[in-house]
Structure formats: C-alpha cells, structure tokens
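input
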Amino acid sequence: MSSNGTHFIVYSLYRGKTLVQSKNVSAHNPANFSVSFHSESDAGEYKCKAEDRDVAQAKYSVSINIIVLAPVLGVMVISTPDPPVLKVRSKLTLRCFVKQGSNVIYKWFFDQQEIRLSSPSVKINQSNLVIDNVSLSDTGGYHCEASNTINRQIFRITSNSTEVTVKVPVSNPEISANIAHMNKTKVMTIISCLSHEGTLPIIYTLYRDKSFVTNYTAQSRREAQLILPLAYTEILNTFKCKAENGFVSKYSSGLVIDVSVTLTSNPDTPIVGHQLSLNCSIKYKSKEPYIWHIVHPGKNSTMVTSENQLIARAIIPGKYYCSVNGQTSNWIDVLPGQDSNFQPVTVAVSIVATILIILAVGLICYCITSKVRRNFPL
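output
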C-alpha cells in the first residue's frame, strides 16, 4: 500500500520458468503485457503470477499455450557423410534443415525429379532422406523443398542442389614391364599399372624399392603407362604400384625387373638325331624378336622368330643359345655320341659276340674231349 492509501499488486508474466515482464498495478486494475513474437522460440506456455505484500503466498493464473507460426526460412541440405562421396553399398543420409518454419512439409528431388519411394532401400522420414545401399545410379544432384501454410498463404523455399558421388573403390592394381630399348648403358622401360575395378579418375603412384618415382592420374582409361630411362643393370630393382580414387589405397605385388635371358630345352638332355624344343624366357614384355644362335663345328647359323620357342629336328652336335634385346642366354651343349639309337645296337652286338665266344669255347672243349677218348680208350 502506498503512502496515499492506494493498494498495489505486482504481476509477473512467465514463459515456462522464464520471466518475460513484471508490472506494479493498483488493485482492481488489470496488468496488460505487450509481447512480441519474433520466432518459434517465443512460443510456449505463458502464465501470470500475482503478489500482494499483505498476502504471504503468491497466486498463479491458468497457463495458456501460445503457438507461433513462422513461414519457412533458410533451407539447406546436410549430408552424412560430408562431403557426400561414397563407395557402393554404403549408407547415405540427407537432412533437409530449415532454420525457421512451422508445420513444414518436405519434398525431395533427384536430378530435378521428385523422389517416389520405389525401392525398399530408400526411406523418407519427414526431413530425412536415407538410402541404405547406394549404387552408381544414385550419383547426381539432390535438393529438398520446404513449405508451410499460414493464414491460407503458402510459403515455399527450395534448397541448393547437393552433388552426391558414388564410386567403386579401386582393386589391387596389376603391374607389368615392357622393355622398349636396351643397350649396355641404358634401359628404356615402360611400367604399366592397371586396376580392373574402380571409378575413374584413378591416381597411380609408382615406387622403386619403396622410394617414390612418379605418379599419373588416369582420367579416361584405366591403365597408366610410365616411361622410365634406367641405368643398365641385369636386375633393375623391385617396382610397385599404388592405386587410389578417394578410398583405401590398394597396392600391386612387387615386380622385380630382370633383363636376363634364360634358355631351357625339352628334353633336358638333348639327344643327337632327335627333336629338341628350345624355350627362350624373359621376365618382361617385349615386342623384340628372338634370335637363335647355333654354333656347329666349323659352321655358325642364326634364326629369327617372333615366338620364344624353337623346335629343331634331328639335331646335330653343337652349342645352342638365344638372345633378346641384345641380351644373351646361357648355352646348351649337344655333345657327339649322345644318339641313343646306337645304344641298343651296341648292346645287341655285345650280346651276340658273347654268345659266339661261348659257343666257340664250348666247341673247342668238345673237340679236345673227343680226341682224348679216342687216344685213350677205356
């Protein structure tokens, strides 16, 4: 009560437990509060509290729930994962985020076409679009539309498009070598790296004995061909390729580039007068011809083939070897007297001679015995 005898009551307006305003009003007069609603956060349960100094306990009004309707504002797409680059069969979640808006209705679009639920792996839950197992066909632009109606007026906002990329991870690359040119000081080598699976572009990195050599980005074809001039040695070290396209990197097996040439024969022990198959082996790819060298006693000859096999019929004694890219193989010797056709004949002649000797000795013994009997009859 004031000094002039007027009785005052303190009225307080609360939103939930938050004090909004307070007024000191004379008794029997209402307290009027002017409240501005700027956003949906201003909505909630409002109630008044009345306090009289002459009454120990405050009194509260009944609560009223105020709903604030706001037109949609600030629409954007939020992706999980972010950025939206995924491998096939992984999960994509897109959320249509609205900064402000009441009773919002959402629509989703893929490449400007509204998404209809035609697949069990695609789910739309209000503001969320979920694809459980993405495929390459899910690559493209996604956007959402948010709308609401206030006092019969429709508010509608469309988000920017979010580009989703679905990729196939690279497979372990294969590595191979091709010798383009070689002499006694330099080897021009073409290293090939190839992943049979994986969405382009693929970045290939070449290592030599774990040391970085060079890299190449394959944009339109799956293979990388890297040309390397190397100092000549018989073994050019171990090479390995790494392939990556945004996911876990994959490595090739190690490739030991050995420029030596190896000659083998079938049979292992050549037989004079019989057929001999010669195989000239190298451990890299090459389009160079195979040169065959045959050194006979008093005569040398060479042959050139595009294949690494040579079949020689009725071979004769001599030295046989091959060469590729100027590199010479080991020798295979065919020695005289190795023709097995003569061996059975020799054995047969030996047996016959032995039999004849035995018969001759037997005949001599018989003759001597007969003569003794005639000279010394019993």
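quick obs: The two ends are 186 Å apart (CA to CA).
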